[in-house]
Write a structure and sequence with these properties.
By secondary structure, this protein is mainly α. It has 13 helices and no strands.
Length: 305
């Protein structure tokens, strides 16, 4: 199967930045949508609108979809690990933590991706400095979680663990794509629709259960779920696919440098959220770990005389 044409380096950079902005705003959209919907309804709604948007682009551009059952099987795995499970975890967790904190935890995705790409799928090798970066990133997560956990072992702590589970799903999925679907020969649009479509289909099958709870569809709720689906789950996933192919899973996952800045800023300005001291401090430590993993900061050995 022939490979689809690749976007230019400049186009990749623009799509990378736009992805970070849209995904950063997604945490605000989730928080607003939760005022009138359950977590499962939020996850299902974003998948449905995302799938519809991508289906329209695929049809208009007459994109070629895969015919191989092997490719479809791998795409269905991604439908669960890259969409359904993390979307449910993020939506559930934001009932108990702020949208800004959720966006900070999302920044652990490069750490998770590096671990999965190195340890689980062997698609990347990590040098000692990168392993130190993973340890530093874990320390940052501990700084974020432990103060609140020491005061209260309640829903907030469990929610933060759920957020880590969601980013672990992202890391697994990004490495999985590199390992099993690097030669799929699909455009970014067709590839994204290949796993978002089945994920939406799964949520439709579960709709009798999901829709059992009532919804309060105010204008902000509807606007948020449409934006979350069309932008955050539709276009942004296409942009992310293009970046992933051009830069690889670990570099592409650094989009999470941008998302916490956008997410925290919108949470403060729009929702009036507040940060505790350990959240930005822990985030800074996580970012240092990411820089080490990405080898943008290197540890130098002292030369012996």
């Amino acid at each position: 199967m022939a490979s689809a044409p690749s976007p230019s380096p400049l186009a990749i950079t623009v799509q990378f930045v736009l992805t970070g902005i849209v995904w950063g705003a997604s945490f605000l959209f989730i928080a607003v949508a939760l005022t009138g919907m359950t977590p499962a309804q939020v996850a299902g709604g974003r998948l449905l609108f995302g799938a519809v948007a991508l289906a329209a682009v695929v049809a208009l551009r007459r994109e070629r979809m895969p015919r191989s059952t092997r490719v479809w099987a791998h795409l269905c795995v991604l439908a669960v690990t890259f969409c359904t499970v993390p979307f449910l975890l993020f939506a559930w967790a934001e009932q108990h933590v702020s949208s800004g904190l959720a966006s900070i935890f999302n920044a652990t995705t490069p750490i998770m991706t590096a671990i999965m790409a190195w340890a689980a799928f062997r698609v990347e090798r990590l040098r000692p400095g990168q392993l130190i970066g993973i340890a530093v990133g874990i320390l940052g997560v501990v700084v974020i979680i432990v103060p609140g956990a020491a005061a209260d072992l309640g829903g907030s702590t469990v929610a933060q663990i759920a957020l880590l589970g969601a980013t672990a799903c992202y890391g697994f999925s990004l490495a999985y794509m590199r390992r099993f679907l690097g030669d799929a020969g699909l455009s970014g649009v067709a590839f994204a629709f290949g796993y978002i479509g089945p994920a939406a289909g799964l949520m439709v099958l579960l709709s009798p259960v999901i829709l059992a709870e009532p919804m309060e569809l105010t204008l902000p709720v509807v606007g948020s779920i449409v934006a979350l689906g069309v932008l955050g789950t539709g276009l942004a996933y296409v942009w992310n696919q293009n970046t992933l192919r051009a830069w690889g899973p670990t570099r592409a996952s650094t989009v999470t440098y941008i998302t916490p800045v956008v997410g925290v800023t919108l949470g403060i300005l729009v929702l009036g959220e507040r940060l505790t001291w350990n959240e930005p401090v822990g985030a800074a430590i996580v970012f240092l770990g990411i820089l080490l993993v990405q080898e943008r900061v290197r540890l130098r050995r002292r030369a012996r005389a």
